[in-house]
Each structure stands twice: as structure tokens, then as C-alpha cells.
Amino acid sequence: MKGMNNWRSGAQGNLWLADAMLLAVAIIWGSSYAVAKQALWFYPVLGFLAIRFGLTFILLLPQLRGERLRAIRPGLPLGGVMLGIFLCETWGVMLTTASNAAFLISLCVVFTPFVEWAMLRQRPSNLLFGACGLSLVGVWLLTGGLAISLNLGDGLMLAAALLRAVLVCFTRRLTADLQVPALALTAVQSGVVASGCLVLGLALPGGMPALPQSPTFWAATLYLVGFATLFALYAQNLALGRTSATRVSLLMGSEPLFGAIIAGLWLGERLTLTEWSGGLLIMLATLGTLRFGDVAAPVVGEGREPAACPATSRH
Question: What topology does it adopt in the membrane (predicted)?
């Protein structure tokens, strides 16, 4: 009996540890919008992404050896999709508020079953149609309600959310039978994003500006690489072995709320009651899709993606 009690105590401890780590990741991902917005005060989008994902690629390069090299084949096209995501998302963060960005990007969860419907002819359940309608009302309220003011940044965040849904479906298709390690796949994708941004940046008139000297920029970039990518991947992979997909979904679904709160405390952004109502409706639609729909838990942030797929990267 004593041994059984010790086992139960240990299992409960592991569950609480997993929950705490996932909640920490949700907070980190929520903060990433404000951190990225601050980094963009010092360096343009293409340069920032080239540095950020170049560092990520270098740190993860040791993962690409032996059988893990099989991550290259699916990683190249998936990296191309991820390049489009981060171009939309990072310019979107620069052109809208960090609060709006955090709420709008979470719509990738609601979009995913409809992308699957288009690609695989698998009709979503009626509940998911309801969640989609709820999210549309949320977007309407978040962007102004009757005085709707969907700006370019908001539009880019919606495009990024749609591309994330496409990435989820392509990842499932391209890695279904390969069992590609998450870190190896993230390494390849990061290399594609860094290379793509560097080529685009050098192709512009005047090329890339000199590297920024601001300690704030480098602190923000290293935070995103170290915590929003590497720690998040580790915590996600550890937690998924110790807790249920439902708990993962509910904990990670709190990310937009943390994003809005941190943006308010750090950047001084303020949402009106109408905008808060819209953001919370988006969260409810996302959580409803995850909890009762047929979508895997989104574990896509820097390294975030559905639990059914190998990890990708996120803001």
C-alpha cells in the first residue's frame, strides 16, 4: 500500500510539473509578441528573422546527423511554408498591436479543420462550423465592431494563421510515416527561413543594414531563440509524455490571454471592452475546437504545432 501511495504521489508530481512547464511555455509564447515588436524597433523584419532563425539553425545543427538527416526532405518544403508564415506574422506584429497579434494567430486552430476539408475532403463537424462563426464574431469585435478597422497588420496575422493551418496539414502528410525528430525538423525549417530572409534582404536596394548594436535587440532575439524555441520544444516534448492532449490544449490555449496582458503591462497597449470581448470569443472558439473537435492540441509556438506532428517554430 505504501508503495502504491508513493507511486501515486510521484505520478501526481509529474503531472503538476508537466502542467507548470506548459503554463510557462504559454506565458513565454504570449510574451513573444511584445518581445518581437520591441526587437523590430531596432532592425528590419528580414534582418531580424535572418538573425533569429540563423542562430536557431546553428544551435540545432548537431541534431542533423545519422538517421535524423531524413528530416531534410520534408523540412525543405515545410520550411518554405514557414518562411511565408513568419514574413506575414512578423510584419503583422510590426503593423498591429501585440494584443491583436496574439489573439488573431490563435485562429490557426479553427482554420485547420477547414484546410483539411479542402485538402482531404474530410468535412468538419457542425461544432467546428459553430466555432468558426464564433471566431468570426470575435475578429469583428477585436478589430472595431461597428467601426471595424481591419488594418494591414491584422490582415497579415490572419494570413499567417491560415498558413499555419496549411503547415499543420502538410506536416502531417509529409512526416506521417517518417517519424522525424522534432528538433531535426525544426533545424531544417529554421535554416530555410534564415536563408530565405537573407536572400530577400540582400536582394533589396541597399542590401541588409549593419548589425544592430542595441543590447535590447540582442536580448530580445536571444530570448526568442532560447526560451520561445529551445525551451518550449523541450518542455512540450517532456509534457506530452506525462499529461493528456486535452490538458495540453487547455493550458496552451491561454497563450493569447497572456499575450494581451503582457502587451498591456510592457508596451502600454490597452484594449477596449469591445476588443476584450472579441479576443475572449476567439479564445473560446479555439478552446472549443481543441476540446470537443477533431483537431490535435496546438503545440506550435517556437516549436509549436499540433501534438500529432513534429514540432515547428512559432513566434
Answer: Multi-pass membrane protein
Count of domains for the chain = 1
Number of CB atoms found within 10 A of residue 228's CB: 27
Residue 308 lies in a domain: no
Query: By C-alpha distance, which of 178, 188, 169 is closest to 61?
Result: 188
Answer whether residue 184 is part of any domain: yes
Is the whole model's pTM more than 0.90, yes or no? no
* Residue type present at position 81: V
Per-residue pLDDT of the chain (315 residues; tens, 9 = 90+): 555 444 445 555 566 777 788 888 889 998 999 999 999 999 999 999 999 999 999 999 999 988 888 899 999 999 999 999 999 999 999 999 998 898 888 888 788 888 888 877 777 777 777 777 888 888 878 876 655 567 899 999 999 999 998 998 888 888 877 778 888 999 999 999 999 999 999 999 888 999 999 999 999 999 999 999 888 888 877 776 666 655 666 666 778 888 888 888 888 888 888 888 888 888 888 777 766 554 444 433 344 433 333 334 455
Instruction: Look up cell 490571454; give the residue.
Output: 257
Query: What's the Cα-to-Cα distance from 302 to each of 30, 70, 126, 157, rounded to whole Å?
Result: 11, 21, 31, 16
DSSP 3-state helix, strand, coil percentages of the chain (rounded to 5)?
Answer: 75, 0, 25
Nearest CA to 196 out of 299, 298, 85 is that of 85
Beta carbons within 10 angstroms of residue 32's beta carbon: 29
Q: Domain for residue 2, yes or no?
A: no
Supply the range of the domain harboring residue 108. 19-292
Helix-helix angle 108-120:126-142, to 10 degrees: 130
Orientation of helix 72-95 relative to helix 152-175, angle to 10°: 170
* Residue 276 forms part of a structural domain: yes
Give the torsion sign (CA, 246, 249, 252, 254).
Answer: negative
